[in-house]
Amino acid sequence: METNTTTVEGSVSIETEVDTTSSQSSLSRDDVFDALSNERRRCALFYLQNQPAPVTLSELVDHVTAWQYDQPLTNLNSGDRMCVYSALRQVHLPYLEVTGFVEYDREAGIITVTDAARYAKLYLEYDPGNDIPWSWLYTGLVAIGAILGGASYFETYPFDWLGGHLVVAILLGVFATAAFGHIIHEQRNKRAAADLFGVER
Question: Are residues 45 and 18 part of one domain?
Answer without folding.
Answer: yes
